[in-house]
Design a protein that fits this description.
disordered N terminus, 353 residues, 4-stranded antiparallel β-sheet, 11% strand, Rieske_2Fe-2S, alpha+beta, Rieske Iron-sulfur Protein, Rieske_Fe-S_prot, 2Fe-2S
Amino acid sequence: MGEHGNGDPQSDAVIRAGDGKSSGHAIDNPGLPPHRPRLADVDEKAAKRAERQVSALFLISIIGTVMFFVGYFVVGVTAGDLEMLRLQNTLLGLGVAFAMLGIGLGVVQWARALMPDHEVIEDRKPLRKEEERAEAAATVNEIVDETQIKRRPLLRNTLIGAALLAPLPAVLVLRDLDRSEDFGVERMRHTIWEEGVRLVRDPTGTPIRAADLTVGSVVHVVPETLREISGHGERLAAKAKAVVLLIRMQPDELAPATGERENWTHEGIIACSKVCTHVGCPVALYERHTHHLLCPCHQSTFDAAQQFKVIFGPAGRPLPQLPITVDDEGFLVARSDFTEPVGPTYWERGYTS
């Protein structure tokens, strides 16, 4: 192949770069590129300007947290006041956004403009001797010095302020999930269902006669007493626990019940909680021929003909059944409240099947 060689690595010359010394590699390691100092590294005015920029971003974070507090504590919202509700949501949303964005951008600008940017290659070695531990501590102190946090008090103080205030909105939001003093598992053990309360259609509030239900009917129902609760939030909370599915099938399609459950149905009409026992999604999909109820969130499947037992999916227990009967006028009413907690299963409940 002439002067280009024949492709044999044993006979072809290997072109090498470097200082002429053999290194065993086709191309010698060029090493790190020369460090190019930034403007802030050589000009103290530029460094001060960068410090003010970082501090300004930390101040924006602090202002965002204050904005959240104003929306949370100062702006009062009453039922039906949509304008104040929009204002509060705007302040809460923008406040959290500025609080997180300000501190995030501030740290990025701090690292980009002020912290050392030179590359260093250092071999790791095990710490076995006391002097090596001291060397590691000195390295940590050197890193702290490189951040310039000691010699730039404005930057340090605004960072501390932003870091202390930024988590508070999250703490308040989590705390506000439930402000009631009796928060706990016991609250889920009871709903507003009780003996004699009529089952009414949701959302019309129409009472339901047993004779009006045909085989295969599925009705979403709530307690008639729900409308007696005046507060909008309290009414929604009560409804969330008390929503029920009412199903009618042929009486002989129901699996024989034992014990107290023998009187929980009426002529093939059976009722259960709509709240899935997995994570609380609404169970509302009914397959008439198999009598299966499906939760659309994670596909937990319950058999309505067998006291709503779990036949598939991640749910840990059957849907709680509501004992029902009819009153003197033929309307469906509850015999009692649910006899077990509604909603997801938690270990604190001590449920046993």
